[in-house]
Every structure is written in structure tokens, then in C-alpha cells.
Amino acid sequence: MDTAIIDKVREDLDADLAQIEALAQSDNFADQADTVTALQRSAETKRARLETLTRALQDREQLARIDSSLTKTVQTTQRLAEQRATSAESLGELFVRSRQFSDWSGYGQSGKVEVPAGHAALERRAVSLPIKTTDLPSFLIPGWQQLPLAQLVTPLLDLIPTITTSMTSFPVAGVKVSEGGAAVVDEGEAKPPLDIAEDKVDVALEMVAVYTQVTRQVLALGDSVFIRDAIDTELRRAVLKKLNELAVAALTGATLPTATVPSTSSLVGAIRAGIATVQTAGYTPTAVAVNPTDYAAADTWLLDKAGACCKDGYWGLQVVAVPGLTAGSAIVGDFAAGMRRYVHTSGLSLFATDSHADTFIHNVITLLCEQLSKTVVTRADAFAKVTVSAP
To answer: How many CB atoms lie within 10 A of CB 244?
Structure first.
């Protein structure tokens, strides 16, 4: 992508902002209200375009890095295959020279085992489990082929601010306006009150975890570093997928305001009504969560109707496909203001051991991934739920 386009949009945006600032400082600012409004709209459009172009450039650069990494991986795989073709090393010999073995916490610490007299023929190594194609995880291919690592996709979690904590349970204190507000009053008259009450929520972090088991021989296949990374990625992906589902459950389980939607409205029209509801509550909606099937149906419906509403998402909102959201509904909201995700300082942790049950004598490694966290809705009025009969 030519960065000159991004530079041009940025220059145009700076020009609009400079004009707005100049008009705001002028003496006839009130007479220029329409011009200022037009410039503000133009600046918002250019800012949205600049963000879209920047994200596209970043995505392209990331793909280029992945392509480069895959090329190096293929070259390494070919080199290892050529070495194995000229070597008669066993899997055990390959393993003891691997990084996985040298990084093992028990490396060099095993005690000496005395074999009783008369048992000279006794097997003196841990029992080796046979490796079958059906025993391998689905993302490992025999023959040391390496597949691209699965992407970690967390569409809803990415919208929610994260707060790190060292505690596993704690109260979250806040305030909530029950009634009242500011008003114009004459000198000497009583000022209006604003009733603010404490709004406390007790948060208890939840453990989300998953594990798998593989033999040491599997970890020694091909590039052991790549295989370990692939397994770790799948474990992290499973945990993050569950965390995203829990965030969806927290959002859909909260009592959210419902936007008034005409019975004949499309999903895109209903989203616009949801935007109005959130704005009326005093928030700025940033995204809309929709069911993936509804998202596809709405895009198909818009093929011959696309206009200003859909150049950057729907009405300028980021559209997030959220599996598990009820079909025919969408949630519009200011996710940065309305939700919080509390994560323990230990973060997303990965562990490996051969000391689980009898796995040591069977050359089996147990790998575990876990995270302590909790996602909560802190301001329900920052959202609006919309429902239609057909997208």
C-alpha cells in the first residue's frame, strides 16, 4: 500500500482541524456555526478513513512477516529432512539432542537406578509409547510438514478495557446517578440536587483452563520448537475462545436498554436506532455486536443499497461478529465505558510437566494453559439492544 495516500489523508485532516481551531478563535464564531459543523463532519470522515488505511497497512505488514517466517520454516524443514535422510538416528537419539530435552526442569537431575542381579536383560529406559498417525494432534502432520499456526481471534475481548489485579476477589466501587441534574437558576434560588448513590459490584475471578498430553517422541518430531509452539498456540486459542464466550454471556446476560425499532426495519436500520438510544444516554457508541449469520445476511441485503451508512462498518461503528449472540438481535454500545475485564497478574500461563500420574514412565508430557479473569458489565446504560424479524 502506498503510504502517500495515508500522508495525504492526514494532511487533509490536519487542514480541517486547523480551520476549526481558527474559526473557534475568531470573533464571529457564532456566524460560522454551519461551516464549523461541516468541517467537523469532514474531519470525522477523514479520521475514520485514516484509521481504516492504517489498519490495512498494519495487516499487510503482518502478513509479509508471516510469509517471511513461513519461508524460513520451510527451508529449516527441508534442511532437517535432508539431514535425517543421511542419518540413521532413532527418535530417542534425536530427542536427547533436542531443545525440549535440554529445557526440561529435570535435566541432569535424575537419580541413579540400580538393576538387581539376574535382571541384566531388564528394559532400562522408560516405556516408549508407539506413535500412530491417529495419535497425533490434528494440527501436526507426519513427515515434519509445518502448517501455519492458528490465529487467536477474540473479537469481543478486543473491545473491552483490561485491568490487571493481584487479587482473586474484590469489590469494585463506583457511583450511580439515581435522579436529578443541573438546571438554569436565578440568583438567590435554590440549586437543584443530583442524587448519587454508591454502585458496588463484587468481582470473583474465574479460572479457565485446558490441558493436553503428548509423548516426548511427538515433541521430538521435526522442528521441536515449532511443534511446541503449535501446541501452545492451540491451548491458548482454546482458553481465549472460552474467555470470549464468557464475555458474550456477561453482555447478553445483563439487563440492557432496548431501542425502539419499527416492525419493518432492517438490521442496519435497527442499529441506527440503537445508536440514538446510546447517544441519548450520554455515551458515544464505538461498536456493534451481531450474530455472524445476521452479519452475512445484512451485508448481502446491502449489496444493492450501500450508501453513507456502510462505508466504514455500519453507520461508522466497528462491526464485530459474535458467535453465541441471538439471531435477529444486535447490541450497540460504548464498550470502553460499559465493560471491564479483570485479569490476574499471572496472565495467560502455560505449564508443562512429566510428573502427572504415571506419565513419567510412559514418556508423556502434560501441557496446561490457564488464566484467572472475569469480564463484567459496569454500565448497562452504555448499551442498547435491538431486535428485528429479518436482517
So the answer is: 21
Buried b (16+ CB within 10 A) or exposed e, 287-298: bbbbbeebbebb
Buried b (16+ CB within 10 A) or exposed e, 254-270: bebbebebeeebbbbbb
Q: Specify the 3-state DSSP secondary structure of 290.
A: strand
pLDDT digits (tens, 9 = 90+) for 156-184: 888 999 999 999 888 877 666 767 788 89
Q: Where are the domains of the chain?
A: 1-88, 121-181+191-391
pTM, entire model: 0.56
Question: Cβ distance 273 to 317 under 8 Å?
Answer: no
- Nearest-Å Rg of the Cα atoms of the chain is 29
- Answer whether CATH 3.10.129.10 is correct for domain 121-181+191-391: no
The Cα 195–Cα 325 span in angstroms is 35
Are 377 and 254 spatial neighbours (Cβ–Cβ below 8 Å)?
A: yes
